[in-house]
Amino acid sequence: MAVYTEIDDDALIAFMGAYDLGEVLSCKGIAEGIENSNFLVTTTQGPFILTLYEKRVNIEDLPFFLGLMDHLAAHGVPCPVPIRTKAGETLRELSDRPAALISFLPGMWPKRPNVQHCRHVGEALALFHTAGENFQIKRENALGVSAWRATLDAGVQDVDNIKAGLFKKLTAHLDRLERSWPSDLPTGVIHADLFPDNVFFRQEHLSGVIDFYFACNDIYAYDIGICLNAWCFEPDLSFNATKARRLLQGYQSVRPLEDKEIQALPVLAEGAAMRFLLTRLYDWLNTPKDAFVTPKDPIEYLKKLEFHYHVKGPESYGLD
Amino acid sequence: MAVYTEIDDDALIAFMGAYDLGEVLSCKGIAEGIENSNFLVTTTQGPFILTLYEKRVNIEDLPFFLGLMDHLAAHGVPCPVPIRTKAGETLRELSDRPAALISFLPGMWPKRPNVQHCRHVGEALALFHTAGENFQIKRENALGVSAWRATLDAGVQDVDNIKAGLFKKLTAHLDRLERSWPSDLPTGVIHADLFPDNVFFRQEHLSGVIDFYFACNDIYAYDIGICLNAWCFEPDLSFNATKARRLLQGYQSVRPLEDKEIQALPVLAEGAAMRFLLTRLYDWLNTPKDAFVTPKDPIEYLKKLEFHYHVKGPESYGLD
């Protein structure tokens, strides 16, 4: 849940006057995204999303994010696009923050994803990867494998308060992940955060992929690892191999995987679990005890990591 | 800011199926209202507000609130109305909570109200009062003058930590307010919370009055006192008599005040300041120090109370 910044109504009307979108009818802060303030702005031409970029987003990355939306939408990915002012601008300023007006995508994210959702997510992820191939701007993955050690070590004093022996255990996992991390796999623009709340459906039909603010250049199959963690575990943390199989089938129907990508899936999925485990640990240790927002339990991702550590091979993901 | 409850997408689609409103296109939690969870639901027929009533609202009061919206809208007040299902229901259940779907009102609330806004608010408040005259259900004011003593006394241990001598000062003000509180003024249904964030405008034109969840039966002119506090002080807490004059002119253009109502305005406005001072004190003392939500400063309302205490008479509100 977000909405950190209030917008003055006069300032909003002036801001919206730069677009060719008619009269502003309403503006509601919405509980979507955790890094930025988002508003649903309705004009006589329909609804739009207004995003104010808060401190956690680096302003230098905004041309990458906004340009990527335009590029992917032009190459068939169902995703929002930045709206241009009459002068052609997309990145602007409102309430002393960088701001962009983005098109509104109909659809709802699935609270209880089923196998059909997983199939469509696989297709959309592969489409995202292939559509991004010619995108010219690059962005390094600030939360990739080379960043994990520093995040873990920053918690050395506190991690064991969450679970006895956790720091030592995670250090051993990380040592092994760093040693075995693949360096010869196809790379390109990945979404890097394709959780259910970032994928909209109308009935069973995927209507949109949103929230590109972790997108970056990294290993394509690592993005599959993120999705296996995000979509294929049940609420009791049991792994649903049918969902994984459908997700991978959906992916390969658009972009067939090379054999070395398939063989690397367990270590990539384990690394993906490590990445979310570490940021959840960080949030857990740095959120005040009485805070209104409850941080997500990091131990969930330890269990997912250990699942991938123990799989026999990629066949555990339902592959033939 | 609210949104306490998550809604399952399948449950929402089933819920919306009881109305004749087409396909659900989206559902976004919105930062509006502080007592309930509110969602902007878009269907192929347009936008609607979905409200889930959280614990702070008494379910027995819901027929009053929903019936009042219907009654006032039918009598010309620009306000939202509960949408009926195909079976004619308005009060339903979703996510284990009482729930209602409400029409969407275009407009934005004024962050910096001007004299023209104040004029229109006065008109709308008077229209609210006259339109409510024949409404059959009654609701006692749970936050009226008879409730203030208990709220103040509950804070006896802590109030002086906010400001030295505050408990004694407030007790003296309350003693006097109770003694001088009028009992012979016209009463009826009042809004009781007509702050700027509950009044929508399109350009300078008032497009709607929302949030009826404090509405109750009480003295009409007390509602004017609430508005004088909410609309006529500048950010530096100076009183803008021109705004008060325009608000009262607007009110009287629809419902002329009796002389005894005019004479009672200072004590009623002082009581209105006491009511918001006390609930802010309560929230201030009962919100955890590290909480995400910052409670509003109660001292603002002490200063407003003291302004009304020191006025010479109703002429200080710009009346001729």
- Taking Cα atoms only, what radius of gyration of chain A do you get, to the nearest Å? 20 Å
Helix content of chain A: 40-55%
Q: What's the CATH architecture of the largest domain in chain A?
A: Alpha-Beta Complex
Q: The biggest beta sheet of chain A, please?
A: 5 strands, antiparallel
> What's the CATH H-level superfamily name of the largest domain in chain A?
Aminoglycoside phosphotransferase (APH), C-terminal lobe
Oligomer: homodimer
Supply the CATH class of the largest domain in chain A.
Alpha Beta
* CATH topology group of the largest domain in chain A: Aminoglycoside 3'-phosphotransferase, Chain: A, domain 2
Number of domains of chain A: 2
How far apart lie the N and C ends of chain A? 40 Å
Low-confidence stretches of chain A: none
Strand order of the largest sheet of chain A: 1-2-3-5-4
Strand tally of chain A: 9
Strand residues, percent of chain A: 15-25%
Mean pLDDT of chain A: 93
SSE string of chain A, helix = H, strand = E?
Answer: HEEEHEEHHHHEEEEHHHHH
Name the structural class of chain A: alpha+beta
- DSSP helix count of chain A? 11
**Mass-distribution shape of chain A:** globular
Largest interface: A-B, 39 and 39 residues
